[in-house]
Structures are given as C-alpha cells and as structure tokens.
Amino acid sequence: MKSRVLPRLVLVGFVLVLAAALVLSGCTRTPATQPTADQSQPKEEPTATVAFKVELPVTATPTQQVANEEGTPLPTYTPAPTNTPRPTKTPWPTKAPTSAPVDDPNMVYVPGGEFAFGYDGGPEDQSPAQTRTVDIFNIDKYPVTNAEYRLFVDDTGHRLPRHWKDGEIPAGKEDHPVVWVSWEDASAYAEWAGKRLPTEAEWEKAARGEQGSLYPWGEAFDSANCNSREAGVGDTTAVGSYAGGESGYGALDMSGNVWEWTSDWYDAYRGSVYSLDRYGETYKVLRGGSWFDGSDMVSAVARNSGKPTFTFSTIGFRCAK
Predict the structure, then answer these.
(1) Gyration radius from the chain CA atoms
(2) What are phi and psi of 228, to 5 degrees?
(3) Tens-place pLDDT, residues 51-88
C-alpha cells in the first residue's frame, strides 16, 4: 500500500514544483509591446509625386513643358510681368518763331508777345478790349504801290486794276498805293512776292506799337500825320508822305491813305456779345481807313470789311512775312 502512495506523491510534488517555476517565470518577463493604433492599421504606400520644374525663358528659345507620368503636359508657369518704369515725359519743344528780321529795307520787324488789342470806347465791333499774343513777324513799311504791282502783273498776266486806263499806271501815281484790288488780287500778289497778308492782330500790333496807342503816333488825332478827310487832299498820296504818322515799329501810312486787306474773316472778338449780320466767313477785314474817311475811321482800332472779290478806289494792301 505504502509502495504505491509514495511514487504518486513524488509525481504530484514534481508537478507542483514545475507549475510554480512557470508562474515565477511569467512574472519576471517584460510584457510584449502592444501594437499602437497606427501600427494596427495597414500602412499606405506614399503616392508617387513628380518634380515640378520651371524654366524661365532667357532667350528666344521656347520654354519646355513638363509632363506627368501619363504624358499629359503640365501647364507652363508664366512669370509675372516685370514692373517696367514709365517713360519720362518729353517736354514740348520751345515754339520756334515763325519769322525773323529780314534784309529788306521796305519791311519792318515787329517783335512777338502780348499787346493791347481792341477798344471799348468806339463801335461795338472793336470791343471788348483785351490782350492778344502774336509771334514775331515782318510787315511792309508802306502799302504796295502801283509800280510794285506793275511788276506782278507783267510777270503773271494778272488782271489790271480798273483805273489803269489802257493798261497804264495813272500819270504821276507810280508811288501811290495801288487801289481797285480785291482780297483775291492782294493774296495773289503776296504769294508771288513770297509773302502773305497780315492777320488782323498783326496789323493792329504793327500800327499801335509798344504803347498800344489809338493812332500810330499817339492817343490824339493829328491831321498833319495822315491822309484822311481832314487833310483835304481828296485822293491817294505817295506812300511815306506823312513821316509824322510813323508807328512805333517804323511802319508808315497805317492811318489813312487806303484801307488795307488782312487775312482774317470779319467776325466778333473773343468775349464779345455783339452780333452783326456781316459776321462770319463772308467778308474779309479791312484796316487803317482811307483818304475819304474821318478821324474816327483812320485810328489803329477801326474795322471795315468787304467780300473777297470787292474792289474800290479806297482799298489797297500791304504784305507781311
């Protein structure tokens, strides 16, 4: 009986010792690392990327396009425009004078600039008085004479003034102003002579001088200085006969003797509220008065007008350049 129990006890003890050893071994071992939430999920393979390369144009060679794996061209990068400086504004050139003193003893030089123009104390067509500006110019010292007009007629075959009987200048009037000439005749002569008709503003400046006086010689009328009605001559006189009537710039016969054509149309002055049926592009301006006119009409501000084809015994002209 005892011989059977002893081996069983030995076997049971061995099992217990083995079990105890296993328990002790489990307590001392480092616990196994638990997988994290990220490790528990399957890893995603990273998406393949394509390097984005930009080649800015340096020369005229076209920029190469970059393509992705499927061969589709990627859009070419367009660089922002360069901030180009704005060009420097070029100043306007200084206005060159249209004329200069000429080597011609029969012309006088008139400097450009501002001058008194118009008059508020006379007929409405002379007003309002104002300041005007003209460029420098030259103007004939005298009205064109019969002798000078003769050269033009002989050279061009232009029609003769009506008072030249049988084509001849009236005896003793070679140095008198030519008359019975229209604005068209005067313009044709001026072109032939290499000149032009003066503007109304130029004519007035040449007559009034630097002082802007009402008459070429001053403010008061003097019958000794011009061929007007008050002189009692009743006809034209040789140019330059009235030295006392010289303007501040040296022009003569700008008061009386003959009316003189200008290049301008007869119209209201700037700022005028005066209206007249003759205003517009129908009549040309005449200046200076004539031997037939009184003191009020031979002033440097008096105005008259006529159609470009009109002629009369009191109308002549002078040129400018």
Answers:
(1) 54
(2) -120, -175
(3) 444 454 444 444 455 445 555 555 555 555 555 444 44
Q: Give the Cα separation of 117 and 302 in Å (integer).
A: 11
The H or E element that residue 115 is part of is strand 113-117
Tell me if 259 sits within 8 A of 304, measured CB to CB: yes
3-state DSSP assignment of residue 113: strand
Phi, psi (degrees; rounded to nearest 5) at 191: -65, -40
Tell me the domains of the chain and their CATH numbers. 107-316 (3.90.1580.10)
- Residue holding tokens 């008072």? 163
CA pair distance 291, 233, nearest whole angstrom: 7
Report helix, strand and coil shares of the chain as percent, to nearest 5. Answer: 25, 15, 60
What is the four-CA torsion angle of 269, 272, 276, 277, rounded to 10 degrees? 70
Here the tokens at position 10 are 């030995």
Structural contact between residues 154 and 168, judged by C-beta atoms closer than 8 angstroms: no
pTM for the whole structure: 0.70
